[in-house]
Design brief:
With about 475 residues, this protein is an alpha/beta fold. Helix content is about 40%, strand content about 15%. The protein has 13 helices and 18 strands.
C-alpha cells in the first residue's frame, strides 16, 4: 500500500512539472462560460480508513474541492459549493456549511467525517491543475470534486486523475465531452451534474414534438460549451425530422446580431437556438427584441446572473412592469432547465429549498441539484461499500441509483457505460418573478411551473450513439 502511494506521488510530480505545458494545445477554448450559464483503473492507496464491513464505514474521507470562489464568475463556484454542502447536510440531518471560502471544512455523517479541502480555481485551467496536483500529492485526498469550467475539469482529469488514479466527481462543468469522449471519460471519473447534451436533447425533443416549428437556425458560442449545444441540438432535431437551415458560431461577447438574425429569416427559420452565456445572450436578445422577427427563440434557462441581465434587457424593450402577456408576445422561450427551485415538488426538494435559502439568502439555482446529488452519492457510496477508500467509493458509484436528490427519490442514475448520471429535465416559460421569490432571486424573470418534463431515459446520449465515445 505504501508503494502505491509513492507511485501516485511520483506520477503527480511529473504531471505538476509537465501537465500544463503538455496540454497547452488542448485548452485553447478558454475557461469562460464552460458550464453553460450547463466521466480508469484501480485506485492506489488512499488515506481514509475502512471498517471492512459493508454498510458500516467509519473514519475520514478527504475530498479536494476545486471551484471558482473569486472573480467575476464566483457565483458559479458559490452555488456549486452551496449545493454540495446542502447535500452533505441533508445526509447528516444538519445545517449546511454557511460560507463559500477556501480552507478545510468538515461534516460528520454517522461515523464518517467528510473533510473538505476547498481551493479557489479562479476559473483558470492552469490554476485548477496546479491545485489538484497539490491536493493529491501533498494533502493526499481520497478524491476530487469540481470544477465549474469544463476546460479546467478536462485538464484535471487528463493530468491528475488519470495520472494519479484518484477518483473525481466532476461538477458543475457541463461540456458533454467530459463524459462522452474517450480522452476524458474513465472508470474513476463521475458526474452527477447535468450536461449540455441533456440541455439540447431535452430542448430539441420539446421543439420537435410539442411545437409547430419545422425549421431551425442554430447559433452558438465559439468554444466547447457553444459547440456542444449546437452539435446536440442538430443531432436531436434532425432525428426528429426538423430541418436545420443554418448554423453560426460567434465569439463570446459578440454584438453585431442584426445581420445574423436577418440571415436566419432569409433562410426560412421558424425558430432559432442560442447556445450562449451571460457574455453574449443580452446582446442577442436586445437585437431580437428591437427587430421584427417572427421566429421563436429556444435554449436553456441559465443562472440568476444571466437571468438578471436578460431580465433587464426585457424590461428596457418591453417596459415595466413585465407581464406574462408581454413575455409571451416576444416568442422568447420556452427554455429547458437542468434544475431550478420551483421545478420539482417532493419532500427532499422542499427541505433543500428551505435549508438553502435560510443558509445563503438565495433560492437553489441551476447547478445546485447536480452538486447536491454529487455529495449525496458520495455519502451513499461510502455507506454501501462500508469503506472510506477512494477506489471503493468509485466502485460503489458505478451504476448507482442515488436515493436522495432534489429531483426526488432515486431520480439520478449513473450510467455504467460512461459514469454520467441521467436525470429528468423540465421545460418552462420565462415569467415575471413573483413576490414570493423576489427577495431570494435577483432577476426580473424566472422559470414558470414546468410546461413539460423529459424523462431521464431520454435526456442523455445513448450508449450506441455515434456521439458517445465512452464505453467503460
Amino acid at each position: 500500500m505504501t508503494h502505491d502511494r509513492l507511485t501516485r506521488r511520483d506520477a503527480l510530480r511529473v504531471a505538476g512539472a509537465a501537465g500544463v505545458a503538455g496540454l497547452a494545445g488542448c485548452t485553447g477554448d478558454g475557461d469562460g462560460g464552460s458550464t453553460g450559464d450547463g466521466t480508469d483503473g484501480d485506485g492506489g492507496e488512499m488515506t481514509g480508513t475502512t471498517s471492512g464491513t459493508s454498510g458500516s464505514a467509519s473514519g475520514t474521507v478527504k475530498i479536494g474541492v476545486l471551484q471558482p470562489i473569486s472573480g467575476d464568475l464566483k457565483y458559479y463556484g458559490q452555488q456549486a459549493l452551496w449545493g454540495f454542502y446542502s447535500g452533505l447536510a441533508y445526509k447528516a440531518d444538519t445545517e449546511p456549511i454557511p460560507e463559500a471560502s477556501t480552507g478545510t471544512k468538515s461534516v460528520d455523517v454517522g461515523d464518517v467525517t467528510y473533510e473538505l479541502h476547498v481551493r479557489d480555481t479562479t476559473f483558470s485551467q492552469d490554476t485548477a491543475q496546479q491545485l489538484a496536483t497539490d491536493l493529491v500529492q501533498n494533502e493526499e485526498v481520497d478524491m476530487l470534486f469540481g470544477c465549474a469550467s469544463s476546460g479546467a475539469a478536462g485538464t484535471v482529469v487528463k493530468t491528475v486523475v488519470k495520472q494519479a488514479q484518484v477518483p473525481m466527481m466532476v461538477g458543475p462543468a457541463a461540456s458533454a465531452d467530459l463524459t462522452a469522449s474517450s480522452e476524458t471519460c474513465g472508470d474513476l471519473v463521475f458526474r452527477a451534474s447535468e450536461n449540455t447534451a441533456m440541455d439540447a436533447r431535452s430542448g430539441g425533443k420539446y421543439v420537435a414534438q410539442e411545437t409547430d416549428v419545422s425549421t431551425v437556425y442554430l447559433f452558438g458560442a465559439d468554444y466547447s460549451f457553444g459547440r456542444a449545444v449546437v452539435n446536440n441540438y442538430r443531432s436531436v432535431l434532425e432525428n426528429e425530422g426538423v430541418e436545420i437551415v443554418g448554423e453560426k458560431f460567434v465569439p463570446q461577447g459578440y454584438s453585431e446580431w442584426e445581420g445574423l438574425l436577418d440571415n436566419a429569416v432569409s433562410e426560412g427559420a421558424e425558430g432559432i437556438v442560442g447556445g450562449f452565456t451571460v457574455a453574449t445572450l443580452p446582446q442577442l436578445f436586445t437585437s431580437y427584441l428591437n427587430g421584427d422577427y417572427d421566429y421563436r427563440v429556444f435554449g436553456g434557462f441559465a443562472t440568476e446572473i444571466t437571468n438578471g441581465v436578460v431580465g433587464q434587457t426585457l424590461q428596457k424593450a418591453l417596459g415595466k412592469p413585465l407581464t406574462e402577456e408581454k413575455l409571451a408576445e416576444t416568442k422568447v422561450g420556452p427554455f429547458t432547465t437542468r434544475y431550478h427551485w420551483n421545478q420539482y415538488d417532493n419532500e427532499i426538494n422542499d427541505a433543500f429549498v428551505d435549508s438553502y435559502t435560510n443558509a445563503y439568502g438565495k433560492v437553489p439555482d441551476l447547478f445546485t441539484s447536480g452538486t447536491f446529488t454529487a455529495a449525496s452519492a458520495i455519502v451513499q457510496a461510502v455507506q454501501q461499500s462500508g469503506s472510506t477508500e477512494g477506489a471503493d467509493i468509485a466502485g460503489a458509484l458505478k451504476g448507482m441509483t442515488v436515493a436522495d436528490t432534489p429531483k426526488g427519490k432515486d431520480a439520478y442514475v449513473f450510467q455504467k457505460y460512461n459514469n454520467q448520471a441521467r436525470s429528468a429535465m423540465t421545460v418552462a416559460n420565462p415569467v415575471p418573478t413573483t413576490d414570493e421569490w423576489a427577495d431570494q432571486w435577483g432577476a426580473a424573470v424566472m422559470p414558470s411551473d414546468p410546461v413539460a418534463r423529459i424523462g431521464a431515459d431520454q435526456t442523455t446520449i445513448p450508449a450506441d450513439s455515434e456521439e458517445m465515445g465512452c464505453n467503460l
